[in-house]
Amino acid sequence: xxxxxxxxxxxxxxxxxxxxxxxxxxxGRGPSTCQHQRPAQEDxxxxxxLVFADLTPEEMVQVxxxxxxxxxxxxxxASRAKPSDNCIxxxxxxxxxxxxxxxxxxxxxxxxxxxxLAVLYFGNQPDPNVTEYVVGPxxxxxxxxxxxVQKYGGKVPYHRRPVTGKEYVxxxxxxxxxxxxxxxxxxxxxxxxxxxxxxxxTAPRGFKSGDRATWFVLFHGVAGxxxxxxxxxxxxxxxxxxxxxxxxxxxxxxxxxxxxASTEDLEDAFLADLVEVVRIEKPRAEAVLGSMRPRHPPGxxxxxxYEPQGPRYSIRDNRVTFQGWSITFGVNPxxxxxxxxxxxxxxxxxxxxxxxxxxxxxGSNCPGGMSTRYLDGSFGIGRFAxxxxxxxxCPYAATYVDRxxxxxxxxxxxxxxxxxxFEHDAALPxxxxxxxxxxxxxxxLRKNTLVIRTISTLINYDYVWDFMxxxxxxxxxxxxxxxxxxxxxxxxxxxDYGNRxxxxxxxxxxxxxxxxxxxxxxxxxxxSLETQDMGYELVKDPWSMQNTIERPYLxxxxxxxxxxxxxxxxxxMPRYLSFAGPKPNKWGHPRSxxxxxxxxxxxxxxxxxxxxxxxxxxxxxxxxxxxxxxxxTSTSIYNQNDPWTPTVTFADFIDNETITxxxxxxxxxxxxxxxxxxxxxxxxxxxxxxxxxxxxPYNYFDEDPSVDSPDSVYFxxxxxAGACGANPLACLPHTAACAPHLPPFRYGxxxxx
Length: 753
Hints:
mainly beta, ten-stranded antiparallel beta sheet, 13% helix, copper, Amine oxidase
């Protein structure tokens, strides 16, 4: 073997050793951490969005301090106030009038003064009432004005006020005292002395204006699980309308189909063997109906969505921007999420998009169930939007935002991480085409959307509120219902009102109806309402006159008045309905946005009902009215406890005014009928229980605006599709070959209950 050969072998050996060392050094090493880049789109808002901003805790404190010093009446903290006291019930931002805001946003107008709306309960005066004050300017208040008569046409009667937490505590004390009068009955029916029974409120509270008598349904309470599936058959009617708690009384008792005047009468009837008792053992925590505890150990983690170069959206204060979108967001403690000044490519699409109300109306053969019509805004849709669970309620890497409120206390509270914002890959093309004719190519775009989400827990139900913004210029609004069903004790012909889901549990039928306000400003404030639908016309074939053909044609119509634009629930409406601006697009059609509703609502309460006017918004799947500052909302928190004389009646908004070239508002109802079934235990699933609507550009642009998306993909048969320069998808193995930096999991949602 010559020297040359030895040298070659030696070099090969060294190269092999070097390669092996490299492999050993890199084995087990994870991918590098993803490096975040600043979004390409910069926010140029300059703080203008703060004109809509929710109050800060500091501002709330200043309002409380001002009211205490300037009202001249004694105020008790609402957390401990009796009905006979005066108290500050809530404080929220007072959004300025639209004209004033638009002068500020679009012109040279001054920034409107920042103000708060304070709701006070005056129980300690000769004429108890609810009064609303506008307080300003913030952050240092110097004035307040009573706006109650201006808003509602008169004072708000005291009996219309929502029930406070302190009132519920006092009611529970009364119920416990009364239950002690039937010890033998409780021991036999429920294995209880009453102290471990949970109570569930119903609403409304009577049959006529001025009533404040509530049915409360009793359940077995088991720690760590929802009690809503464990009724014991006992319900009580409490009269709590008097200003003095000592005068409240238990007016009626119901058990297993029988009514009694009091718990003493129930006990006497039981001892006389006049009551058919169904013995219900106290559930064990490990076997209780509806337990959500895992039944198996955790498996391997599922797919994880992350952003290799960081979020592509930008958040500043109460405003988020994303690929041409700009949205100002907030949460009303009563009515829930609200968006303002929604713009796409710099043009305002909508001035306001807000949730108004959520109705749950039940049926049952038990008094509590059959009388329940929850108007959730009265309880607090926004107030009870608690902390979101990272990685389940929203993607793990989403941005989480705190929300603050002041209600039933003079101390502001924070629901931390209770709103989330994220970009969502729907794993579906927004658009695509594979060409196999004439030339071979592929073009497409992923369906990525910006999502703003919050979730409200309203007693037993959880509502997932989503607002989604698409690359096509469309807005999607959707709500999903989950959580526990409400139930009644199963007796008699209970299955006429639902399905049996447990040994003694009836899952009671109900409807969910949700109402939204959509103040569209399409190419300006002045819009008209146009409809399009199809028909068939029978015509002779131009090329074969002896034959005929059924030809589809388009029927166009402009609706002139509000009565024409009020479409009753569950009746046919035009398939295309659009807000049209005054100017055409490149092709001569009015620049428009189409409203497309996706809903399968139940039946609305009959108009003959004495309380129907309080939810008259539910008559219509869509109603379009002229926008008025004096018609800011379709309902009121005071409608729940006096639906017979509603404080706000939506039906009165529709008075046949002209709607051509006017500032218009679309009021949209969505919902579904829910007949609970076995698979609703432990919880109702979101699958199939989502409804909503779209706002879609319709000739607003000259072409689909998503063609300008940097995410677009196109390659032909003549290109190397695996080359990064020709196809951005081919870049992913390099640009996405990094490990996301995930923050540690923490949860503090139980701290602020």
